[in-house]
Amino acid sequence: MSRASIGLRNSLLALAIAGLLGACGQDKKPPEIPPAPVNVIELKPTSAPMTTELVGETAGYRDVEVRARVSGILLKRTYTEGQAVQAGQVLFEIDPEPYKAALDQAKGVLAQEQAKLAKAVADRDRIIPLFKENAVSRKDHDDAIAAYNAAIASNQSAQARVKEAELNLGYTKVTAPISGMTSKVAQSEGSLISASGESGLLTTISQFDPLYVNFSYSEQDRLTFERLVSSGKLAMKDASNWTARLRLADGRMYGETGKLNFSDNRVDPKTGTIRARAIFDNKQGELLPGQFVRVILDLGTRQDTLMVPERAIVQSQADRLVMTVNAQNEVVPRPVRLGPTIDGLVVVEEGLKAGEKVIVEGLMKARPGSKVAPSVASAAAASAVAAQ
Fold first, then answer.
1. pTM for the whole thing?
2. Alpha-carbon torsion 221, 227, 230, 231, what sign?
3. Is the pLDDT of residue 28 over 80?
4. Which of 79, 82, 209, 277 is the most exposed place for a label (fewest CB within 10 A)?
């Protein structure tokens, strides 16, 4: 190969290398990222039930201590512990023999007093005609009348002692004062029972139907409720018709609806709360005293309320945020103050206005200030989000 050919080849090679280096030095623009698709809902004022959920404890409608009214040896128990009993049913028997003897003695004293009364009546009836004929002295007449009156008083006292002895004998059979469920026996057969003191306690009967649920609400809850009523944002139910529902420990809702039947008129200075009570039917015995439950009170209807699904709420340290989309399709975080949760939807007390668009799907891609492609979620989709 000639020198000219070699030089031409080297020149072409140099030009090729220079072209490649120039091409590598050119800046390439990154591909533009399209806006993230999100689902939004448009906030509209609506009516919602005014509910509040509180911790409560069940209690028997009536809890009655069964106590002995006479002393003696406990002979036997006539019922099964923990079972239902009826009012008037015999539960225990105390040795009746000492009280039978006391009754017989009282009857003997009464018979004596009745004999004395009969004699006093006869003396009075004999003296009065004689006194009218001046056949006896005034003193004899007065003594006969006094003896008659004393005999009447003694007879009445003897009758009272007989009645007392009969009562004591009847009290040897200890009966149930109310119908309900019995607790554990406090005294066993053969024990010496005293009518006074702790040894007189035999058992306790609790009436489960109906059943009370005791709970407390804060002073702030009361003030918030009154503020909503005075501002017209709450259509309050009649206080006599406030209803309550129960959420049990396993998350189930109790089948019966209760009624609020007591609210205290003072605040407990130790806890800052107000005591209240609801009453529920418990015919099946599903609830027992001492259970902890969640009490859901229905107090009325909130007017012009804004609500968002729970899934639309973002936790940011101590704040709660909702991601909204403005007119330029940009994501704008909005801090909000939330109210109660009702069927998966959370009441927004402050921070949002009617007509704003809230992101309910696609929050992971919705960065504050970024562009998004919003699409309005259908009513069915929004309900599904709320249910989730």
1. 0.61
2. negative
3. no
4. 82
